Amino acid sequence: MRLLVTGGAGFIGANFVHLVCSDHPDTTVTVLDSLTYAGNRQSLQPVLNKIDFVHGDIADLDLVDELVSGVDAVVHFAAESHNDNSLADPWPFLQTNIVGTYSLLQAVRRYNVRYHHISTDEVYGDLELGDPDRFTEYTPYNPSSPYSATKASSDMLVRAWTRSFGVQATISNCSNNYGPYQHVEKFIPRQITNVIDGQRPRLYGAGHNVRDWIHVEDHNRAVWEILQRGRIGQTYLIGADGELDNKTVVGMILEEFGRSADDFDFVTDRAGHDLRYAIDSTLLRTELGWTPRFESFRDGLRQTIQWYRDNESWWRPHKAVTERGYAEKGEQAI
Ligand code: NAD
Ligand code: DAU
Predict the structure, then answer these.
(1) CATH superfamily of this structure's domain 2-177+213-238
(2) Best CA proximity match to 84, nearest among 204, 241, 217, 253
(3) What are the pLDDT digits (tens) for 95-114?
(4) Residue 242 in contact with residue 298, Cβ under 8 Å?
(5) Catalytic residue among 33, 80, 122, 217, which?
(6) Cα–Cα distances in Å, from 250 out to 145, 177, 262, 333?
(7) pLDDT at 37
(8) Ligand nearest to the backbone CA of 82
(9) Which residues make beta-bridge pairs with 4?
(10) For helices 100-111 and 61-68, what crossing angle results, to 10°?
(11) Which residues contact 316 (CB under 8 A, 6 or more apart)?
(12) What is the DSSP code (8-state) at residue 171?
């Protein structure tokens, strides 16, 4: 199979390319990535001799048309992905997440190429704390942030192109990923690198917001299964029953470094901060037989901490500028 992977220099995309190169070496991979602040060619270093890397924008219709004409399938990871940035400046989110997806859909429609769309559980809005409810494939869309609204919009485009033009598409909506190569702006790597730097972790609000954590490798194995065997037109939710509140996660990180679990600061809350996400992945498990391999979040977290300890040269150039960005957005200890 000839595969075009968009956003392959980002966190999940790079891990996906690593997985394909190691487990499915017959696959030919082309990565299309515009190398925004979140894209990092170094994340592909170990596989650069096995793939084609194209530096370009998914919203470039001509470039996308040319690339899609030469492949059998597209897996679309590229996005502006950080909620806090979407609150500060929504425009790049509309351009990349909506217009960029439109550009890919037009090309896969033209060449009848299989398309898998990577999306997020945030399109469903949030759940109450302590509620037994979880998101399913049939939960109504109710996005809260500019980021999640643009992801919801892109999902709707995929559904429309599938129904109206017969595009051979599947969609997956996954919960919060953690693992190697995640940008230091995101919660877990930000706190790990803060602790490495002798700084205190920073918790938004009261730290009681809940996220449903999944290791990035488990997410990507599910994506591969859906690409191979998923039903066209179907949405699959991906999650590993990993619900934890933010304060608990910070406590676990601190404990891994031998520091007291309450050695953190509460800081300004995120505007519109979603309270809780939780995924019911029954469909994926029963229909495609997927199960997560990382059964213990603590073990996965420990491996991730070790990765950040071993790969300081990967994250160090981005740390100070990211922290400056948070300060400029008005983050303050409360
Ligand atoms: P990321 O921010 O780490 O990486 C995004 C990548 O896309 C970067 O390499 C960036 O350079 C590239 N990119 C951005 N705009 C582009 C453009 N216009 N043209 C080409 N490339 C462009 O993001 P991530 O966390 O790896 O997320 C990947 C996908 O997974 C996104 O679609 C996101 O919505 C989705 N998702 C993420 C999570 C999570 O926990 N991180 C969970 C569920 C779904
Ligand atoms: O649910 C899937 C989504 O998960 C993806 O679609 C997004 O691309 C991805 O960024 C992630 O969104 P979140 O907003 O949940 O992730 P983030 O890492 O920004 O924050 C996780 C939680 O931690 C959230 O409740 C906010 C909180 N937080 C975050 C940061 C950066 C803190 O308390 N302190 C922080 O410093």
Answers:
(1) NAD(P)-binding Rossmann-like Domain (3.40.50.720)
(2) 204
(3) 999 999 999 999 999 999 99
(4) no
(5) 122
(6) 24, 16, 8, 16
(7) 98
(8) 2
(9) 30, 74
(10) 40
(11) none
(12) E
